[in-house]
Each structure stands twice: as C-alpha cells, then as structure tokens.
Here is the input.
Amino acid sequence: MKAQNTLSAEMNLKTEPTDKIDFNETNIIVSYNKKINTENEIKNTFEYSKLNVNYEEGNFLSQENLDRFNQLQNKIEFSHYVSNSTKLIFSVTPMVNFQQNLNMSDFAILGSFEIVQQLNLNTSIMLGAARTTVFGYPKVMPTLSLNYKLNNASALSIGFPDSRFSYSNNIRNKFSLTNSFNGNFYNLDEKNTLNNAEKMTLSQMTSAFEYERNVDKNWFLNFKAGYDFNKKYNLIDSDNHKVYDFNTGNGYILGIGIKYKQ
Here is the structure.
C-alpha cells in the first residue's frame, strides 16, 4: 500500500519583468496521490500562491494599491480506467482569489472532464473540456493533447493549453521544452471608482526551457527560463469587460523551485 501512495511538497519562486512592471510570484504546493484499486485513483493538490506587482516609479499612480494578490486552491482529481486502454479523468477545483481581505465573493470553482485513449504502446490522445483561467478569467473551453513516447529517454506532448518535449539522459536529469497558455484573476478588495473595475486579470503564452535535477533520494531542484508572449495585464468589470489595460508588453521569465517527494 505504501508503494501506491505518493506525497510531494514543493516551493517555487518566479519573476517576470516587463518594461514598466515586474511580477514576482511565490507558490507552495502539497500533493497526495492514492491508488484505490486497479481501476481507480484519486489525487488531491493544495496550492497557495502570492503575487507581488512592482510598478516603475512615476507610472500608474492611481494603481499603487494593486501590488499584492493571493490565491488558495484545492484540486481534487479522480481517475477511472474504463478498460486497459481508456481512462476517464474528472477534477474539481474550489479556489479563492483576493488581494488582502478574504470574503465569500472571492470564491470560485474550476473543473475539467477528460478522456484518455491509448492508441498503441507509445501513443495516446486526450480530449476534454475544462472551466479554466488560461485567458485570465474563468471560461469553459476544450482541451486536447497527442502524447507520444519516442523512446525510453524522451516523450512529446502536443496540444492545448500545454505542449511539452522532455528528455532524460539519466535517472537524475530531466530536460524539457514547454509551451503553455496560462493566466489568472484576482478579485479587488474594493471596486475601483475610476473605471468600475472589480477584478485584475493576467494572461500570456509562455515558452520555456526547464531542467529538473534529482539531487537526493527524495529531493529535486528545478530551474526555468523562458519568454512570455502576448502578455496581458488588465482590469475588468463584473461582466468580464476590459476597463483598463496596463500595456505591459512581453518579457522573459525566470524560476527556481525545490520539491520533496516520497
């Protein structure tokens, strides 16, 4: 039974500077995975993240209070094997996204439903739908990926919102090239009276190189370097209409993290 349970905890630091605004994020993730039987598996992932936004001095004077944001979320994922080649994955993610003062209006629910079909020994396809924030606010959209294992050392996944090519030259090193559409939103403590804004949204497409090193039996270090394309930092109203655009422009991304896994 111990071999069927997996516990991991990690902390990541990330910086994303642009011409006039710098974004710095810290997140802590605790995940527990349990194989119930040969057909069913459950995974629970709790995550806390804190985002600090630093503005260039002399700019955005009316937005100086928009500098710290918090998120708490708990993703519950259930997997069921319909057959040896078909798997169903259902997830629900309650979350709260807020500045400093937490209240019930900050609560939201994301979720997804996916079907994974194994086409042959090395190839599988995933189709599904998800309520996600990849474009900055909750929205239902399709998800898909084609996954191919090239050999024992490398694998390729092409799809939306995430694509990845990974390679391991030994059991301790893992190199990855990734491309992902990602975003988030945060409810404002008070409605912005200048433009009637109620939420802040962030979204971008990130292309990155990642390296993970297994430094000890249970400890991993990871490094990430890449670039954000089509980066958008906006304020929106209650109907998700844009009311203010910070015009941040694109910028690079650097990240480092540490993980414990058993």
